[in-house]
Design goal:
By secondary structure, the chain is mainly α. It has a single domain, classed as Globin-like (Orthogonal Bundle), CATH 1.10.490. 72% of the residues lie in helices and 0% in strands. It has six helices and no strands. Helix 1 crosses helix 3, helix 4 crosses helix 6 and helix 5 packs antiparallel against helix 6. The relative contact order is 0.18.
Length: 126
């Protein structure tokens, strides 16, 4: 069965669940989620479904301020290009593993933009 583009909310759920499965097994960034942020996964994952569904499918149900959250985390542990690079690499690999098409390319572009903007904001907050 060939890959398809990201077109439905179920695709977003698959993307987010697969991606965060990789994050939770990644030695470079797992500690930020588990030991620093103490992520409550059953609450976090639906928020990420809403976030990515809003960006890619136009379903604007996300409520939150990810920039402030990440700046706050960066005051507790260094979050640099190394951590953002690992995050972005895992995200792109997940997209490439599961999907292909215009929305898949858009998701990778948006993830890169998000990582870049967050790095700038974290540096400005120092």
């Amino acid at each position: 069965m060939g890959k398809h583009d990201i077109t439905r909310h179920e695709d977003i759920i698959l993307l987010v669940d697969t991606f965060y499965g990789k994050v939770r097994n990644n030695n470079t960034i797992n500690f930020i989620f588990e030991d620093i942020a103490h992520v409550d996964w059953p609450n976090h994952l639906p928020r990420m479904y809403a976030f990515w569904s809003g960006l890619l499918l136009g379903n604007n149900t996300y409520q939150g301020d990810p920039m402030t959250t990440h700046v706050h985390l960066s005051k507790q542990t260094p979050i640099t290009h190394v951590q953002f690079g690992a995050w972005l690499s895992l995200f792109v690999a997940t997209i490439d593993e599961l999907f292909e098409g215009e929305k898949a390319r858009e998701a990778k572009m948006r993830a890169g933009n998000i990582a870049g903007l967050m790095m700038v904001k974290i540096q400005q907050a120092k």
